[in-house]
Amino acid sequence: MRPTRVTNTIRAQRFAHGEMTQAELARHVGVSRQTVIAIEQGRYSPTLEMAFQIAAVFGVPLDQVFQYSATAPVPEGDTP
Amino acid sequence: MAVEEKRSWIMLVVAVVSYAAYLCSVLSGPEGLPLERAPYAAALLWSVGLAIVVTIAANIAVAAASGEEGAAKDQRDREIHRFGEYVGQSFVVIGAVSALCLAMADAAPFWIANAVYLAFVLSSLLSSTVKLVSYRLGFHPW
């Protein structure tokens, strides 16, 4: 499966916002906890609207939560 | 595991088991009779009917066990479902074309019915597999 070039800081944002749980974030955004987990782990690229919703929950701009890398991310354990 | 992922597993297992049962039933038919004359209609109808009933019952059980969260599909579920069905539909088309060719070649109804049934089963298997892979390994529609 082609890895996404979109990375995110959802985990860090959750901890910065009162250690918000994945279930709480899921409830705010209106998705299942599994979907939040998939986004957090980079296994699902959310739509633009959902990305904005997640950023709005944390009260930060979109680019503080999601970043796009011009080069493909290197899988963990692989060294260039 | 997401509820929709469990439903994909149900679909996969039911499709495999019901088709295997159907094949066992047809292949163990009366000896000495050519396969194309073997009675298959009742076995086919029973396997399809039981597969539908078992799928509905298992889906209800999964939804009940999952509580409130199991009731709603979210955007990811809908996208993965749509993608899986889109990929799986290819086998329905292949089955229809195969049945058309068999009919034009004056094949026995046994082969036509079985080509269509096999295409439905393969469609179901492919669709479920694509959904499970999307849930497990990742889904990036963009």
Short description:
The complex is a heterodimer of chains A (80) and B (142). With 80 residues, chain A is mainly alpha-helical.
- H-E order of chain B: HHHH
| Biggest protein-protein contact in the assembly | A-B, 18 and 18 residues
Structural Rg of chain B? 18 Å
- Gap from first CA to last CA of chain A: 20 Å
Question: How much β-strand is present in the residues of chain A?
Answer: 5-15%
CATH class of chain A: Mainly Alpha
What structural class should be given to the helix and strand makeup of chain A?
mainly alpha
Order of strands in the sheet with the most strands of chain A? 1-2
Biggest sheet layout of chain B: none
Give the terminus-to-terminus CA distance of chain B: 24 Å
Q: What is the residue-mean pLDDT of chain B, rounded to a whole number? A: 89
Task: Report what the structure shows.
The complex is a heterodimer of chains A (80) and B (142). Chain A has one domain: 434 Repressor (Amino-terminal Domain) (Orthogonal Bundle), CATH 1.10.260.40. Helices cover 48% and strands 8% of the residues of chain A. Chain A is built from five helices and two strands. In chain A, helix 2 crosses helix 3. The longest helix of chain A is centred in the middle third of the chain and has 11 residues, at 48-58. Chain A is globular. The mean pLDDT of chain A is 84. Chain B has helices at residues 3-27, 41-66, 75-104, 109-137. Chain B is globular. Classes of the chains: A mainly alpha (80), B mainly alpha (142). Chain A: GO terms for molecular function: DNA binding.
